[in-house]
C-alpha cells in the first residue's frame, strides 16, 4: 500500500473548516493531495489552511445552498490546481434533535433540505461536469449518515435528507460510471463533532462517551472524525477503483447489529435461559 495514496490528486472538501471535513482535509493532504477547503466559517477555514500549510491547501468560501457558489468553487479549484479528481461533499446540518414529525418547522425543513440535498446535488453536478469535460476518472464522495439506513437515528427531516443523499449518489453512480467516475457515500455513526456537541448540548467528552456507549465494537474508544476521514480516503484513492454506488457505514456495528450488544451465550446459560 502506497504511503502517499492521493499523490498528484486535487480534492475539494465542503464543510471542511471543522469536524469530519477538517479531519479529511488533514488526511488527504498528508497523503499527497492538494485540497480546497470549502466552508462558510471563514476564520476557521483560514486557520485550517494555516495549520496544514498553504502549499498543500487553499480556502474558498462556499455556501452549498447556492448552485452558483458551488460552480465557482469547482472553477476555483481547477484554476488553482489545474484539475479536479475528488469531490468530498461533506457539508451538512440538522434540525434540533428534539424535533418530531408532529412539530416540523417547515422553514427549518427547507434549510436542511437546501444544505443536505440541494447542496449535495450541486456538488455532484458541477464536480461531475468538470470531471467529464477533462476525462478525469474521478471520485465523488458524499457524507450520508446511519440515519439514512433506518428511522430513529436522527430527527425526521435530517433522516429524510440523508436518505435522499444515498439516492442521489446511487443515481450518480449509475449515470457517471460510463465516464469512469465513481460515486459513493460514507455514513458515520455518532461522532463528537462541534455540530453534534451544539445540537446535543454535550461537551466533547460527554459526546465521546455517548458515541462509545452506542457501539457494538468495543475497545477502540469513541468513533472519531478521523475514522470517517480514513474511510473517505479509501473511497478517494485508487484502492477503491471498482467501488461505486456504495454506502460505506462506519458506526462500530450499530446499524448491522443494534446499539445494544447481544448478551454473551455464556451469560445466557448461566442465567438458566437455555
UniProtKB/TrEMBL annotation:
Native source species: Phoenix dactylifera
NCBIfam families: PRK07231.1
Protein family (similarity comment): Belongs to the short-chain dehydrogenases/reductases (SDR) family.
One Pfam family cited in the UniProt record for this chain: adh_short_C2
Protein name: Short-chain dehydrogenase reductase 3a-like
